[in-house]
Amino acid sequence: MEPFFNLTLNELEHILGVCGKEKFRARQLFKWIYNKFVLDFELMTDIPKSLRKIFKEMFSFTFLNLESMERSKDGSTKFAFRTHDGYTVESVLMPEEDRTTLCVSTQIGCKMGCRFCVTGKIGFIRNLTTDEIVSQMMSVKKLTDTTITNVVFMGMGEPMDNVENVIKAIQIFGSPYGLNLSKRKITVSTSGLIDTLKTIPQNLCVIAISLNAADDEKRTYLMPINRIYPLETIVDFARSYRPDKRSRITFEYVIIGDINDSGKDAEKLADLLSGVKCKINIIPYNESKHISFKTPSDEKILNFQRILLKRGYTATIRKSKGQDVSAACGLLGSRYLEV
């Protein structure tokens, strides 16, 4: 049986066409499953009974096994799911006044080895399949009966290192017959694998690049991938990134105490991005017992933001979510280091 969550609409249409079935049945299935969250073929009343029986034999729905749910005092929830081969993958649901965002993972572990990230200390185990990425969304919907308005690919792993499965998941999330999320509601965060980024259609999603330093020496220290994709390459890509008149690329800046939090660092960042249509998301480092870095003082964080604002940038400070349950940025996968 084919895992249904592994298929884009085009792939499903192709499969049904090969089987001699009308392609519009694929749109019907997407609507029932993703729009209406009906997963019992017998209840799909606009599909003939004979065809429902065939679909039941053709497709399966693979939900990840829930290992734990941890509710943070700020209202966010971390989900730990067990894969078929016994690994744990984590997702975070973050409700806010005007949106409900799900942070999904794309890998078990990560190859990038960023010094500030707990997931990077695990090392790389394997990529998640499209089925496993989409199943995070569907499993959380099943468990919480929540309408999810936004998806961020900011969980465990480097999305651009698993680009084929990530693109398929985005196409499922964004399909008007699927979950119907607009491209502005889907964000992919990357450490800056520029060659892979160039292969993604510019109207597919919002791109966020994790920058974290304004000079190559410091960024290489924090993010070894900078040896392959240095700042000049990243900024050149950002200058050419023009999906439409409204869109702009996002740069994420994890601000770490006494590492990259000085006023001089902020001025260098402003100089580096001069003329680039972008916004800067300042992310206060979330401390972990597994890493020696510290969170900067509020004064330093606000001063960093003030300098960028004064230089004409849109610069926001991300509010940490789920820190008390190791669900905040950079903390996913902690359980792998506690055995």
Task: Explain what the structure shows.
The structure is a single chain. The chain is α/β, with parallel strands linked by helices. The protein folds into two domains: 2-60, DNA polymerase, domain 1, CATH 1.10.150; 67-337, Aldolase class I (TIM Barrel, Alpha-Beta Barrel). Helices cover 32% and strands 20% of the residues. The protein has eleven helices and 14 strands. It has helices at residues 9-18, 24-35, 49-58, 118-122, 130-144, 163-174, 194-197, 216-222, 231-240, 263-272, 298-310; strands spanning 2-3, 59-60, 65-71, 77-82, 88-95, 100-103, 107-109, 124-127, 150-153, 186-190, 206-210, 249-255, 278-284, 314-317. The strands form three sheets. A ten-stranded mixed beta sheet has the order 3-4-5-6-9-10-11-12-13-14, with helices on one face. A two-stranded parallel ribbon has the order 1-2. Helix 1 (9-18) crosses helix 2, helix 5 (130-144) packs across helix 6 and helix 10 runs parallel beside helix 11 (298-310).
